[in-house]
């Protein structure tokens, strides 16, 4: 009997211990910068992203716009401090000829968008419109070069049109003729897109050889233009691709390697974006957590060939992908719920914690497509839960990563388990500490003890994004259902922070 009592006591003590998540934070070792470019976006000619979502035309739209670009969307995007924007695809980029879409609109060549619905693309939104949009947003453009149906020469000429000094070629003359006097100085160039799939179904050996041709011709010999050239990396656990890419491309011929990963339940049955079961929610979270392993394994390979970490890992497509909502009236349109907020909170923590190698990323996609931050319907616009996470996390942009060690409870579903809590932290130029936490468990709240060690804090404040169900989302009739609120469940005492997070919530704390 005595023995049983002792075991019961021990059992309940163990339970209490287990119920407490523990984070240890090393503010003193904060010396790696979290590149702001981790918080980048992606805009493809797909569904209602470019046309309707961003560009409504210069002449006839009732929607307030500047040079055809929606004022409401620009205003909302500017709040996110978007550091870079990838364009024009995606698979669309793999057959895109940039010269079809410059000059007077009535002289541009209409084409068929063979990647997305075989619809007519009149090319009203082209290079000038995109680069001017980036300027309006204060974002760096990231152009994806057509390495599939395009040519090396076409890529070389795109660089010249966008970047070279006036008077150096017929291309810079054209630029001036088409209303742009000075170069835009585009730094980020993706050479190919998913070259193992819609970008040409290439073998890695073929891709590497072709890549070298493009990367050499697009620059002078020593890349004195300092282009940041991003080679196509894997989009599945095909680590052989990364290995051969790192082996095959000489060190000074690339600055980044891309990686694509979508949190998708099943490619042949992705499920509804807003009506999903607990099991589907759990699988989505498992897929989101896979990003950690995927990055880790790719980093191990890159470390072998590039121990100084000169080449960046660029996750230029990530997010949740579900079945297209018919009521969205556009390919790959999907609602955006608290489930997406959890993908975003978790994924951005993973990126931050790998800031030594992951120095750029692009959420797919910006407006009306996949895990969008904004949805539009004619003149209406709503901000999604993902928008709010991106806005809350912007405090990490260019701050110094404070390494964390976490011991997390499990989020359990049937026989499967994944960590329930994820965290990342950074110190900004003003010396403020920001801690972002995601509790992906949609059934259990979590108590988290954060040991902030030597960081001397007198004050903690924060915001939370949460809602009663993971299916909750904003609609055009109820646009404020899910919005960040002040968070008052974080207490500081004696170098420790006690945080209590409700189920399925994202919290960002500020300490100083
Ligand atoms: O983001 C949608 C599509 O997903 C992109 O066009 C392609 O690169 C990827 O397969």
Outline:
The chain has 512 residues and is of the alpha/beta class. It has helices at 2-19, 71-78, 127-137, 152-163, 170-177, 204-217, 239-248, 278-305, 338-353, 385-393, and strands at 20-25, 32-33, 40-42, 65-66, 69-70, 84-87, 111-113, 119-121, 140-145, 188-191, 228-231, 256-263, 312-320, 358-364, 374-377, 380-383, 400-401, 404-407, 410-413, 416-419, 421-427, 433-439, 446-451, 460-465, 485-486, 490-493, 496-501, 505-511.
Bulk shape:
globular
**Fourth-level CATH superfamily of the largest domain:** Glycosidases
Structural class: alpha/beta
The level of helicity is 25-40%
What is the strand tally? 28
List each distinct ligand once: alpha-L-arabinofuranose
| Amount of beta strand | 25-35%
Indicate the low-confidence ranges by residue numbers.
1-18
Largest sheet: 8 strands, parallel, barrel
Q: What would you report as the Rg, rounded to the nearest angstrom?
A: 24 Å
* Number of structural units classed as domains: 2
CATH topology of the largest domain: TIM Barrel
Mean pLDDT: 95
| Measured distance between first and last alpha carbons | 52 Å
Q: DSSP helix count?
A: 10
